[in-house]
Amino acid sequence: MLHPSAADILNELRQAIIDGAFPAGTELRQNALAERHGVDPALIRSALLQLDAEGLVRILPGIGAVVSSISREEIDDVFDLRVILEPRLLRRAVPALTAADFARIETIHHLFIGAVAASDMARWGALNAELHLAIYTHARLPRSLRIVTGLLQTCDRYTRLQLSTTPSPGRAEREHGTLIALCRRGEIDAACRVLTTHIDGVRADLHAALA
């Protein structure tokens, strides 16, 4: 029998939190999870520490790992970083994007549109992150890209909340489409402005959803 790897455990726990299988406030008990998955508790501990770094859980003294709630402060922390880092990545990456890169970006964009139309919440956040990262792929800023990848993973459940509560979920599709078109034309300053507006718009929607 094959036992799950550390990456398998991490991905499964992350997805369970994003999907709402572990709601905010749920205590994730290391030994119980280890027994459930048939693995050494050290693997669970490693996964929980990574989820803590991603902001999906909090490690509390005397309690252990608890699934984080979505707060205004957490949203602002994540989105402030996105507004700083993502336009910088876009500015560096766009001149190096090839026709093949744009074909891949367009494919992801159309898959995102289809997921929204089908209310496929399991795909919304993942495709949103995949689209953004596909645009930044040639930025040659590996540390910034790793940070943004982590922020977008954290944003997965935010994206689902935003798209499921906003009165106009098609706005994300339109903004993505505009962003892609500007990148194709090499209008980098305009693309950075649209990207910043897009990120701040998601932030505003999330604040409204929590009101």
TrEMBL record:
The keyword Cytoplasm does not apply. The keyword Transcription applies. Residues 3-70 form the HTH gntR-type domain. Keywords: DNA-binding, Transcription, Transcription regulation. It comes from the Bacteria. Pfam families: FCD, GntR. InterPro entries: GntR_C, TF_FadR/GntR_C, Tscrpt_reg_HTH_GntR, WH-like_DNA-bd_sf, WH_DNA-bd_sf. Gene3D superfamilies: GntR ligand-binding domain-like, Winged helix-like DNA-binding domain superfamily/Winged helix DNA-binding domain. GO terms for molecular function: DNA binding; DNA-binding transcription factor activity. SUPFAM superfamilies: GntR ligand-binding domain-like, Winged helix' DNA-binding domain. This is Transcriptional regulatory protein. It comes from Tistrella mobilis (strain KA081020-065).
